[in-house]
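Q: Hi! First time doing this. I have a protein sequence and I read that you can turn it into a structure. Is that right? Here it is:
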Amino acid sequence: MGDKINNIIEELKSLTLLEAAQLVKEIEEVFDVDASAVANTGMVMMSPTRDNVPEESIEEKTEFDVILESVPAPKKIAILKVVRSLTSLGLKEAKELVESVPKPIKESASKEEADQIKGKLEEAGATVSIK
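A: Yes, that's right. Below is the predicted 3D structure, encoded as structure tokens:
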């Protein structure tokens, strides 16, 4: 590999999970690709453009639910702290939520807010999905 590529790889290694998620989102927007399609199929899928999509199917989802899917036992306390910082739950309620996954952490959140919450929880070690 060339020096330029090695430098990019080294830079990528230094990113936090939240920064990496933001990078993927930016790449998807700039290059009009879907990174989840690459992960699932190994092939780059071009997103439909406005030119070839019927007008009624362009409606974008604006509200998202952040679901806490799993909490590894060694990471439970760190995840519990993040859940408390993201919600108005007391210690007992947050502990019950973390122990009874899968559970929604935030409902009807904006895409940006949902991504931020997911990033914080994943950084603490949780498995999170956005629906």
